[in-house]
Amino acid sequence: MVIETRGLRMRYGTTDVLNGVDLRVHQGEVVALLGPNGAGKTTTIEILEGFRRRSAGQVRVLGTDPDHGDEAWRARLGVVLQSWRDHRRWRVRELLSHLGSYYAPYGTPGRPRPFDPDELIARVGLTGQATTMLTKLSGGQRRRLDVAIGLVGRPDLLFLDEPTVGFDPQARQEFHDLVHRLSAEEDTAIVLTTHDLDEAEKLSDRILILMGGQIVADSTAAQLARQVAGKTEVRFTHAGRSHVRTVEDATDYVRELFARHGAAIEDLEVRRARLEDVYLTMVREFESGRPSAVQSAWTEAAL
Amino acid sequence: MNPRAAAVRAGLTRGRIEFRHNLGQAYGYVFFPTIALIVMYVLRDNTVPGTDFSLGDRAIPGILAMNLVFTGVMGLAVMLITEREDGTLLRAKATPNGVLGYLTGKVTSQAAMSIATMFIVLVPAALLFDGLRLDAVSPWLTLAWVLTLGLAATLPLGAIIGSLFTHPRNLRFATLLLMGLVAISGVFRPLDALPEWLRWVGQAFPLYWLGLGMRSAMLPDALASAEIDGSWQRLETICALGAWAVIGFAAAPAILRRMARRDSGTRARGARRAAHRERTGHRTG
């Protein structure tokens, strides 16, 4: 077990950001932490990285409590935070080889550390930029360098916080290939956050949906799709407000809708739910602060 | 290799690389002493009270000392504040023994910068003012230990100031304090004109002793008579600068660690958002 948390809570002042998060990540597994902005993804990941002190709960990362992780523990982690502006006047190869040198004493015969800088630069497709100053890199190039820095110590566990924000479609595709190769060749466990379901589906072995400070779903993309299969999305306008509902039995729901409101219902649209529709409905309901029937249904399914 | 030794070695490399990056900004550090040099050149016909030695010549070592403190302390403070904001420090935290390497690098590059700017000022000063005693070996030996002790005494203060303030703007306050310190440290002229208690305040801080040490290195021994004690007070200089160095190196890492912890939270998050806005041109959650 690479990561295990039980009852993880985080409170800022009087606001609870995490309300008892339970999660497990196994060796070599790629897990996507999916959720809307403000769901607590970054907070969770920063607690796991040892950059933030939790309010309550049990956390083990690589067998250690991150609040008390020592430098040898740190050497086994790779951390890619959200976009950065650090080391602006350094050059790509210069920085990678410098940061790599801190890991050299932690290498083992089975896992030599650090990565060879040139090999790593080639892997993230920056060979042409090896001597470029960091300020001169494009957004996508800078992000790939951030990933390379996260990998330079050949980590057992890699955290990627919104790794593809600001990527164009091609850069995104290349990045996905890189992640697949990493988990396959290096047996690196990867935890990544994203608010893009499509990306979570493509990249991960398992998707955890974090909403309102709790894991509301924990399964493979295929299982999630099966859970929502058979659900139907109903959109309509009533009294000038548009509504979206995800329901089990659309016929029943629509019949009752008309029985109650009659001709006041307009713009009715009924269609079979796709995974993405259900997720987006959850996000909308979460963001508008309404209690979510879908969310509780999903939580039950996940339990 | 021992991981901490590897980090210190990486830190020295880091210091060399950053010194190379920063050398282009040296002009920012020599502006102020250049002005002081010009003023002293204009005043070169005034003499040190009780001697026929030029007041201008007598002030040069003090100006160099002041510049060392400004470059070292304020330069380091500004850099720390900037690099907390842009994530460099958090990057160091994410690297094994990275904070040790970071500090080693910062102290190395800033010490090198202080010494480089000192020479940029010293060379024209030696040409303009002919009272400086630089043509023997012993002044340079004295200069070497005074510089080493002086930087060791003052650079940790830069790290502490950089940890306590959150924005370069707020450093104006620290700059003002430093200016006040310059006024009571005998940088430009002997302290005779000051009330006795203020002289004691001046002597409590390392700038006074660094200035005295520099004067003892560069000026003829006869000038010692113009000092408070009538001598160069070598032993006292070593004790005072040594004490500041010990206190500074003991306190700075603890204060820096405290700051690094606090930074890992909301401030770093703010920095990331700012970075993200900068990159994408719009605001996100």
Automatic annotation (TrEMBL), chain B:
Keyword tags: Antibiotic resistance, Membrane, Transmembrane, Transmembrane helix
UniProt GO MF annotations: ABC-type transporter activity
Main location: membrane
A GO BP entry: response to antibiotic
Ranges annotated as spanning the membrane: 26-43, 63-81, 111-129, 141-161, 173-191, 235-256
ABC transmembrane type-2 domain: residues covered: 24-259
Region ranges (Disordered): 263-285
Protein topology in the membrane: Multi-pass membrane protein
Record field: compositional bias (Basic residues): 269-285
Any one cellular-component term (Gene Ontology): ATP-binding cassette (ABC) transporter complex
Pfam family, one: ABC2_membrane_3
Cellular localisation: Membrane
Record protein name field: ABC transporter
The organism of origin for this protein: Streptomyces caeruleatus
